[in-house]
Amino acid sequence: MTQQGTATVRFRQMKDGTQADYQLLEHAETAYVQALPDRVLAALKKLESESLQGYPVNRYQHSLQTATRALRDSADIELLVAALLHDIGDDLAPHSHADVAAAILKPYVRPEVTWIVAQHGLFQSYYFAHHLGKDRHGRDRYRDHPWFNACADFCERWDQASFDPDYPTEPLATFEPWVREVLTRPAFDPRFTGDQTASVQDPTKP
Question: In the chain, how many domains are there?
Answer without folding.
Answer: 1
